[in-house]
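Hey, resending since the last one bounced:
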Amino acid sequence: MTPAMAEKKDAIYYHELHVHEDNMAGEVHDGLSRQQKTLSPKFFYDKRGSELFDEITRLPEYYPTRTEISLLRRHVQEMAELLGTHSFLLEMGSGSSIKIRLLLEAARPSIYVPMDISREHLIASSQRLANDYPWLTIHAACVDYSRTWDVPDFGPGRYNAFFPGSSIGNFDPVSALQLLKQIRRLVGKEGGLLIGVDLEKEPGILEAAYNDAQGITASFNLNMLRHINQRLQADFEPDNFAHKAVYNSTQGRIEMHLECMKDHCVCINDKLYDFESGETIHTENSYKYSVESFHDLAAKAGFSPVRVWTDEAGLFSIHYLTAI
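The C-alpha cells again:
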C-alpha cells in the first residue's frame, strides 16, 4: 500500500486491501469441516457487527474499554510525547470510540491511517474524523489482519502503531507473535507501538464481561451467522444457536462459542454441514496476559518495552514499545 494507490473518497484517501468473498467461502468451509467447528472472529465485523461491538464497549460488565479510556485520559500527554510530533500514526482495528481522538488531539500526527476489516464502518468513522479534524490527512485501509498486507510508505518520518482494545488477545500465541512481527516491519526500526493488553484476573470478572445481562454480546456472536448468510449463499437460522462464553484456565483465555440447540443441517454455497445438538462453533478467543508475559512476547517480535500504564485494580494495561 502506498499513497499513490489510494482512492480519494470525499475528505479521506481509501485503500482496499480486504479479503475477497471467495476466500471467505473457503475459510468458512475449512472451519466448519473441522472436528471442532470454528469461524474466524473477523467475520463478526460487518456494519451491524461493528455497531454491536460499539454497544458492548459501553456495557457495565465490559471493563476493558472504560478502563483503557481512563488510562488514556490520565496519561495521554505522556503517550503523545513518546509518539513524537508530526509522526505517522497507524491504528489497528480502528473503531468509532474516543480513544483515537484523545491521541489525535494530543499528538497531532501529520498522517493518520485507520486500519479495519469492516469497510463501511471504516469509511464512515474516517469521514467523521476528517470532518472533525480538517488539518489531518487520513488514509483509511481495509485490512484483513490474518493475512499479510502491504506496508504503507509515506516517505521519511516516524511511524507509530496504535493497537487498542486488547485485540492482540484474539490471536493465539503463535499468531499473536506473527502479527507483532508484522507491526514491527510496519513501523520500521525505532518506530513505536502503543498497545492495550487485558491482564490476567479472576475468572468470574472475565466471564461476566462476555456474558452481559442485556445479551448484547450474544447478539454480536449470533450476528456472525447473519453476516455469513448475507455474504455467501448460506441458510443459517441463528435461533438454532445460543451464545456461550467460558474461561479456559489451562489456556488462559476466554472462549466464545455458538452452541447448537438441535440437530439440523446448514447449506452454504451448495455444501451441506450437519450440526448436532450440544456441539459448538468456536468463534473467538481472548487471551489474557501478565505484564511480564506480554513483554516476553513483544521481545520475540523485536520490540523493547519503554513504559507501561495500569489501573489501580490491575484490570488492564497499555504499553509503549519501540522497535529494535
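The longest helix spans residues 63-83.

Sorry for the duplicate.
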